[in-house]
Amino acid sequence: MVHWQVFLLISILAESFGRVFQRFLLKDNKSDPIAYAVWFQFLTGILLSVYALIHGFKLPDNLLSLTPNLILVSVLYGLMSIFIFKALQQTEASIFTILFNSRVIITVLGAVILLNNPFTLKQVLGTVLILASVVAISFKKQKLQIKKGEIYSLLAGTFLALGVINDSIILKSFDVATFSAIAFIIPGIFIWLINPKSTGKILALPKDKFFPKIGLMGLIYGTAYLTYNFAYFSGQNAAQIAAIFPISSVITVLISMVLLKERQKMLIKLLAAIISFVGVLLVS
After folding, report:
1. Of 24, 32, 215, 244, which cross-links 201 as Cys (Cβ 3.0–4.6 Å)?
2. Cβ-count burial 191-201 (b if 16+ within 10 Å, e if not)
3. Predicted confidence band at 97 (pLDDT cuts at 50, 70, 90)?
């Protein structure tokens, strides 16, 4: 029997390498990020659908009442995907990862406001540390200067956080494997619907030499998602998993330095990643 730690390790490494690989595909590529986002959502969703069918595809009895939440899934995760692809076209994977961690603050604030969860002194300290990491990574030439790619990174984190809050409502009655597949496919449909002018590029992308790499990217992220769930179901210890997984942000920064040669402001990036990691632990 595979222990939950092995599944979690695979998930962390897949998440870290996936983010670096995504940046590698996009940094010098002028292709339409909308087309990439649509196909990434579809391909990852198809992979997760295969798992859901094997696991047992199940729709909840109250599906109709969850329709507004499912619409939110498509909107929030669709916008998140667009901003991730736009961000990684314009900013380094290491910087994106640190800024993307700001999503934890919004998730906790949402839980405090909507679910009446307490906001403790420890979480306040964690929030300060995460904000400090954002300031550190965005501080340039004696002033705080946030570039367009960094704004996209923060927006991506914001929409993910709102999506997670929405998920907490849906998953009270939805099978996790089934919802996972749906939660990747319907945002792809939403992205396409709001960008009809990109239809030609979307349809042409499968003929592009980069298309198999998008499939590989979907496989990597699908693996990260599934092994994370396997870790939870094997160990039944959500608290430990939630505490360990954020180390992926530090690993992403280190891998980016080696593979993508993102070595400018190396010490600041590493310190910001560590501060952000500690902040996420405290807030979570």
Report:
1. 32
2. bbeebeebeeb
3. confident
